[in-house]
TrEMBL record:
<keyword id="KW-0808">Transferase</keyword>
<protein>
    <submittedName>
        <fullName>Class I SAM-dependent methyltransferase</fullName>
        <ecNumber>2.1.-.-</ecNumber>
    </submittedName>
</protein>
<feature type="domain" description="Methyltransferase">
    <location>
        <begin position="50"/>
        <end position="142"/>
    </location>
</feature>
<dbReference type="GO" id="GO:0008168">
    <property type="term" value="F:methyltransferase activity"/>
</dbReference>
<dbReference type="InterPro" id="IPR041698">
    <property type="entry name" value="Methyltransf_25"/>
</dbReference>
<dbReference type="Pfam" id="PF13649">
    <property type="entry name" value="Methyltransf_25"/>
</dbReference>
<dbReference type="GO" id="GO:0032259">
    <property type="term" value="P:methylation"/>
</dbReference>
<dbReference type="InterPro" id="IPR029063">
    <property type="entry name" value="SAM-dependent_MTases_sf"/>
</dbReference>
<keyword id="KW-0489">Methyltransferase</keyword>
Length: 199
């Protein structure tokens, strides 16, 4: 699967595919986003400028805005972003893949970037490319929260809905090359601080 295959598949996907709880109920779906936003808030400073990469229809971006974060919601799918703004019109949305972020931000950098249920669907190569762009969008010392799972039996996803897992060694090498310092946390995702490469 190339990144473009994944992007195309998500653009055409039923919104129910975003999260298993959507098949339970809309209430359960949105409550899961509120709970995850509260979890993110334990590591992202109050009022921070945050970028939600692959925001979907705003399951987490909307509650992050409610918590007082200045949210930029980025997704490659305009359909997803339209669903988000139908719900909450005043969140900043950007239709872009990882390569399009820099063009939107210009010289600005975010205090924090998070990406949930996005990297997991990409190949090793595309995931590394995306994480590099997310790091570039984050100010030095800023926080990245990445749903980037490790496994003792790492494997690449073989479909747009599959899950790519990484070995700890692969992740450590990637962090060193990209400029990410792992931060200890109880979060179910990786938490990193943006550092200089080799610093
Ligand atoms: C499973 S949904 C997750 C949505 C949201 N993060 C959440 O947790 O509810 C994946 C989203 O990521 C977007 N996406 C996938 N790959 C992308 C990429 N390379 N660049 C930008 N968006 C991407 C898809 O369009 C889709 O909206």
């Amino acid at each position: 699967m190339t990144a473009n295959d994944v992007i195309r598949a998500w653009d055409q996907a039923d919104p129910a595919a975003i999260h298993p709880l959507r098949q339970v109920s809309e209430k359960a779906y949105w409550e899961s986003g509120e709970a995850q936003a509260a979890t993110l808030a334990t590591v992202i400073p109050d009022g921070a400028k945050v970028l939600d990469f692959g925001c979907g229809d705003g399951r987490v971006a909307i509650p992050m805005a409610v918590l007082g974060y200045e949210v930029t919601a980025v997704d490659s799918s305009q359909k997803m972003l339209d669903r988000l703004t139908e719900n909450v019109p005043d969140i900043t949305t950007v239709q872009a893949d990882a390569d399009g972020i820099a063009g939107h931000l210009g010289r600005r950098r975010m205090d924090a970037v998070y990406s949930l249920a996005v990297l997991i669907h990409h190949s090793y190569q595309d995931c590394l490319h995306i994480i590099g762009k997310l790091r570039a969008a984050t100010k030095l010392g800023g926080i990245l929260v990445l749903d980037w799972p490790a496994s003792d039996t790492p494997a690449e996803a073989d479909s747009w809905i599959g899950v790519t897992t990484w070995s700890s060694e692969q992740q450590a090498d990637a962090c060193a090359a990209i400029g990410l310092e792992p931060v200890d946390s109880d979060l179910p995702w990786g938490v990193y601080r943006a550092v200089k490469v080799g610093g």
